[in-house]
Amino acid sequence: MRKAQKEATRQRVLDAARSLFESRGYEETTVRAIAKEAGVAVGSVFTSFASKSEILSQVMADRLEGLYAELDRLAPCLRGSTADRLRTIFAFHFSFETRRTRLFLAHIAAAYDWTRSAASMPYGRNPQLKQIIFDCLAEGAARGDVDPTVDLEMVVDLLMAAYAWIYRLAAWEGADADTMSAVMDRQIGLIARGFLPRGQASSLL
Fold it and tell me: Least enclosed by CB within 10 Å: which of 64, 173, 187, 205?
């Protein structure tokens, strides 16, 4: 019974936090506000979570579980050059994240919270997205349209940085998934010029 009550409290905290992160943003949402929204004591929040950043990490982990399960299913079916497959992967992400754009902006903002706990997983520390991109590049190297001498980890970092920065268009201009995907497509083309094997035809972009 007590375990069930604790789990119910934890879920209320997550539901309240999701709503507040999306409406107020990361910086403006406090643990006290989350507790008030959830109808629990502040101490009850800290029974399950060490920090605000850890709460957001769990909110996003729960939300992204379905996305990555779907990507794992689709990845083997992707066709075209490595650049084209990367474009598809990121277009899928834009389509998903723009359903709750403000929540994802909070997720990105948490990456720059220097007070976050070690257990938190803000944008950039999530291993799943990094692995999906890395696997796509590694497969491209095996197929011959990615230079095998290129530092794939660096390419992953460049792609993830570009993806996060494009969300400024959503924050500043209300850009939708298609608009941001089009920008990302062009940026992938530029980045791909750095990982194509020497002499590779630009038609692969």
Answer: 173
The tens digit of pLDDT for each residue in 99-120 reads 999 999 999 999 998 888 788 8
Q: Domains in the chain: how many in total?
A: 2
**Number of helices and strands in the chain (H, E):** 10, 0
Does residue 3 fall inside a structural domain? yes
Distance CA 82, CA 80 (A): 7
Residue from 149, 157, 109, 99 nearest 129 by CA: 157
Domain that holds residue 185: 63-204
Report in angstroms the alpha-carbon separations of 163 from 33, 79, 85, 94.
Answer: 30, 21, 15, 9
Give yes or no for a contact between 38 and 15, defined as CB atoms under 8 angstroms apart.
Answer: yes
Residue 123 CB-density burial (10 A; 0-12 exposed, 13-18 middle, 19+ buried): buried
Q: Domain with 105 in it: what CATH number?
A: 1.10.357.10
DSSP three-state, residue 42: helix
Q: Angle, nearest 10°, between helix axes 2-24 and 101-110? A: 100
- 78 belongs to a structural domain: yes
154-168 pLDDT, tens digit per residue, is: 999 999 999 999 999
